[in-house]
Structure formats: C-alpha cells, structure tokens
C-alpha cells in the first residue's frame, strides 16, 4: 500500500505503529581522531607506515567523531588474536553483551511505551554478530522478565538491513495478531568484525573506520489504546524488500575462525544510490521529497548518504539526523535505523514540531545490507503532543 492508497481507504485498515523507542550504547569510546594511532598500536602494525597514513585519511573522510564499543583496552590487550588480522579469534564477548545491550535499549523502549513488560507478546531480535543456542532472544526474555510465552524470532547474520527486516516482521506480526505487542531489539557488538589491517584487504580497512556498537529497540502494536496511555510515534504503512540486481559481491561477510570476515566493495555507495529513485517512486510518487517527506536512511558510510542526497535531489538537511547518528556512533549495523528514528523523534520534540517526523506526515526508512538488499518502509507520523512524545 503506497501513501495514496492509504489516503484513499481512509486510514481504516489496521496498520502497525511504533509505540515506544529506546537506544543504548556501551561504555568505551573510541574517538575517531586518535583511532588510527590506537588501531595500528593495538594490532602491532605500526611498521605499516603507508597503510596507517591511508587509514588516517579514510578515518577523517568518514565524518565520524566517535564510536562506542564493548571492547575495553584491557580486553584487546589480553586477547591479542582479536586485534590480529588473521588469527583464530571467535570470542565470547558477544554471548553476554549482545543481550545485555539489547535489554538496556528494550527497557527504555518499554518505559517509553508506558505499559508493563508482561504485556509484550512477541519478540523479534536481530544481531549480525554472536551465535548461541538458546539465543540472544532467550537471554533478553530472562533479562527483562518477559512472559515465558513470548513468541520469539531470532535473526542472526542479516547485516545492516536487519533493522528494516526486523521492523517489517514486527509490522506483519502486529497486524495479524490484534492486541499483540511486538518488541523489536537490534543489538550489535563488533568484536567479531574487529581485526588488524592488511595491505591487500582494503575493504576490511574501510570497515574498521566505520563500525561501532549500539542497540535500538521499539515496541510495535497495530491497535494502540489511548485509554491505556499508548500513543503512535510512527505508523509503518507499507514495507518492501528488494535485491539490487548484480550487486552480490558488494558487501560479503563469512564466518571463519578469525571471526566474521567481510569485504566492502568500492562501489557500494554508487550502487545503492543508483537504485534509490525507483525504490522511492514505488513507495510514494506523488509527494515533494524535500517539502513533504522525512528521511531515515541507513548511515552506512558518508559516501552512501552523500550519493543518496545527490541522486534524489534532496536538501542536505533532509538527512541531518542520519549524519548525526553516523557522527556520534559510526555505522552500528542493524541498530542504525532505530538510532536514527530515535534521534528524529527527539529533535522533533525539542523543536516543538507537530509530528515525530520533523513535523511532516510522510516518511521513508531505508535499510541497506548484503545482497545488496534494501528494506524500504513507508512511515506515517500522526500529529502528536510532543510534550508527551519523549
Ligand atoms: C550496503 C550497506 O550500506 C551495508 C553497510 O552498511 S556495509 C558498509 C557500507 N559502507 C561502505 O561501504 C563505505 C562507503 N564509503 C564511504 O563512506 C567513503 O568511501 C569513505 C568514507 C570510506 C572514504 O571517503 P571517500 O570520499 O570515498 O574517500 P576517497 O579519497 O575516495 O577514498 C580514500 C581511499 O580509500 C579507498 N577506498 C575507499 N573505499 C574503499 C573500498 N570499499 N575498498 C577499497 N578501497 C576503498 C579509496 O580507493 C582511496 O584510496 P586511494 O587514496 O589509494 O585512492
């Protein structure tokens, strides 16, 4: 259903809504300006002078200020294989920290929703890292004291579009289970993708300048009950998933003894941007993209945002929220789009705007990931009392 069909059917169809949002980051901070020195030191690579200079250049061009991580200096120094380029280094840091960080974001989302955790009926959990049975979803149920009857769905190794995938699943679950309340948790801890530099693996080096840890959570329900204090921040009107043809080599990651080993192709940003116009038109043809639409675009890298803005002819302020998330956190994989959603809601409330979507009614959320896969969600932000929205 596009925005025009929604208007035609008078908003009568049951549409999933985001009723609460929460985010969390771990305690350690890596300032981007000093990261090249730290990274080459911790990986014993200071002899690679030219590569270090190139890495410093890439770090500067990311426009990232800092990233939050669960890997303390002590952890990295006592587990040197994690920081080596090519040593067996699957580690157990994520077993505990992925559910803990996810639960921290979920507690805030549930508090924001304003209802007790025992009213959660479904859990959709997503992480690119880790791999446990029972899974991170099971741990989140324990940490939050959710009902043991919570219907869980655990998604591992989806990648950066996983946030969009989780939201799309939550939409279907909420719309097909009247009264259901779906908790979505995306939690990323990048210790399995962290590794030292290698002169012949530039895609790795780019990723080391980008990725950071964060969790984002939302509560989704299709029939909010105002009398219970529930209010809609964003409706998820429609959702699409698309593979961009002939781009499967652009972002590739494989689980190996060394952890999750990935490559990022030089043309990722160009190929993502080239697909955008047709994806936007599929979701909404009739709107003015600058004046009438808010944009939550996965901040996968500075070049991705630059090219999306250029291709769609957007004003740069339309992706200011996405750039800010990137500046403060880097690319936090699946949790990025929820981080951006929360930042937009917070800024809209601060500015006293009439909707959580920068005062606008219609918006688009885009998640990009391996495949290349694009998750597109058409959002509608109803008028709300911003004093109650945060
Ligand atoms: C699909 C998804 O979106 C899912 C994800 O989130 S996965 C992560 C996706 N993100 C990316 O792939 C990163 C996108 N790229 C960027 O944001 C920018 O290219 C950047 C910030 C990394 C660098 O900025 P830039 O303006 O392109 O700088 P530029 O001077 O052209 O490049 C710096 C150097 O890095 C090299 N480089 C950049 N990206 C590279 C890549 N993916 N592979 C190999 N080399 C790369 C360039 O060739 C250049 O090297 P030389 O100086 O030897 O020519």
List keywords for this structure.
nine-stranded mixed β-sheet; binds acetoacetyl-coenzyme A; two-stranded antiparallel sheet; alpha+beta; Peroxisomal Thiolase, Chain A, domain 1
Secondary structure: number of strands: 13
Please tell me how large the radius of gyration is: 20 Å
DSSP strand content: 15-25%
Name of the CATH homologous superfamily of the domain at 233-382: Thiolase/Chalcone synthase
Please identify the structural class as seen in this structure: alpha+beta
Distance between the termini: 29 Å
Order of strands in the sheet with most strands: 5-4-6-7-1-8-13-12-11
Q: Do you know the CATH topology of the domain at 233-382?
A: Peroxisomal Thiolase, Chain A, domain 1
Averaging pLDDT over every residue, what do you get? 94
> What bound compounds does this protein have?
acetoacetyl-coenzyme A
Helix residue percentage: 25-40%
CATH class of the domain at 233-382: Alpha Beta
CATH architecture of the domain at 233-382: 3-Layer(aba) Sandwich
Shape: globular
Biggest β-sheet description: 9 strands, mixed
Enumerate the spans where pLDDT stays under 50 for 5 or more consecutive residues. none
Per DSSP, the total helix count is 14
Order of helical and strand elements:
HEEHHEHHHEHEHEHEEEEHEHHHEEH
């Amino acid at each position: 259903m596009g925005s025009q069909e929604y208007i035609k059917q008078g908003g009568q169809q049951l549409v999933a809504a985001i009723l609460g949002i929460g985010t969390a980051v771990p305690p350690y901070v890596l300032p981007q300006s000093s990261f090249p020195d730290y990274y080459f030191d911790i990986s014993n690579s200071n002899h690679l002078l030219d590569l270090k200079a190139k890495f410093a250049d890439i770090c500067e061009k990311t426009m990232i200020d800092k990233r939050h991580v669960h890997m303390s200096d002590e952890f990295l120094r006592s587990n040197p294989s994690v920081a080596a380029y090519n040593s067996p280094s699957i580690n157990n840091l994520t077993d505990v920290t992925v559910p803990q960080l996810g639960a921290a974001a979920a507690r805030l989302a549930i508090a924001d929703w304003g209802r007790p955790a025992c009213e959660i009926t479904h859990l959709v959990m997503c992480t690119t890292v880790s791999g446990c049975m029972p899974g991170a979803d099971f741990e989140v149920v324990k940490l939050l004291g959710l009902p043991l009857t919570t219907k869980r769905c655990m998604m591992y190794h989806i990648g950066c579009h996983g946030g969009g995938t989780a939201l799309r699943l939550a939409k279907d679950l909420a719309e097909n289970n009247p009264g259901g309340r779906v908790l979505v948790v995306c939690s990323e801890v990048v210790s399995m993708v962290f590794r030292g530099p290698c002169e012949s693996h530039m895609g790795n080096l780019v990723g080391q300048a980008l990725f950071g840890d964060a969790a984002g959570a939302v509560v989704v329900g299709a029939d909010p009950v105002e009398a219970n204090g529930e209010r809609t921040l964003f409706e998820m009107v429609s959702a699409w998933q698309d593979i961009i043809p002939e781009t499967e080599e652009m972002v590739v990651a494989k689980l190996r003894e060394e952890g999750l080993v990935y490559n990022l192709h030089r043309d990722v940003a160009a190929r993502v941007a080239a697909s955008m116009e047709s994806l936007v038109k599929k979701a909404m043809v009739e709107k003015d993209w600058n004046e009438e639409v808010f944009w939550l675009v996965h901040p996968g890298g500075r070049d991705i945002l630059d090219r999306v803005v250029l291709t769609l002819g957007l004003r740069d302020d339309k992706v200011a929220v996405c750039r800010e998330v990137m500046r403060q956190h880097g690319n936090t994989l699946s949790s990025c789009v929820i981080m951006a959603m929360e930042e937009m809601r917070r800024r809209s409330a601060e500015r006293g705007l009439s909707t959580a979507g920068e005062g606008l009614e219609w918006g688009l959320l885009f998640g990009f990931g391996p495949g290349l896969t694009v998750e597109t969600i058409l959002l509608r932000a109803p008028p709300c009392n911003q004093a109650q929205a945060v």
